[in-house]
Amino acid sequence: MIAQGISGLMRPLLGGLNVSKIRFIYLCGVTEQHHTPAKQGSGRGFSSTHKLQDVPGESRSADQVTVNFINRDGERLTATAKEGESLLEVVVNQNLAIDGFGACEGTLACSTCHLIFEKDTFQKLGTISDEELDMLDLAYGLTETSRLGCQVCVKKSMDGLTVRVPMDVSDIRRQLEVGKQSKQ
Hints:
- The chain has 184 residues and is α+β, with helices and mostly antiparallel strands.
- It has six helices and five strands.
- Strand 1 and strand 2 form a beta hairpin.
- The protein is globular.
- Residues 9-15, 17-26 and 30-59 have low confidence and may be disordered.
């Protein structure tokens, strides 16, 4: 009896879903995620994630919110997001050109989706988990209003939200790419 209970609890882990993804799914109220293989040369900098597909049966316009990202170079990128999506998913789904954004694909294993919020907006966001705080400690350009985009879910009240991408990012993949090029 106990073995069956443990087996049931372990099933998501054995199926390749780690604890961070389970927490992410619970946090955003997502019941299912669909991933497609990465396209070569997708133009998204370092990310290997292609567009996350729509969940069948979802409303296409009723729950949409406009989100603005101020990129490192000052360019304003505007996207339409669905209520319940994380800001990381918005960047991936809209194929926004934010270099190096979302290296761990939302598993709370990096800080490349670090975003800076306006103070009043930041105060309205949900509580920051200890795991998110640990990753924010590794982020460059940390501010009092910093959050990870993979941990902030879009709400209808966020319509017109503007967030700033910090000037620099801590992404080991950049160092690896430079190392590969210098060996050639």
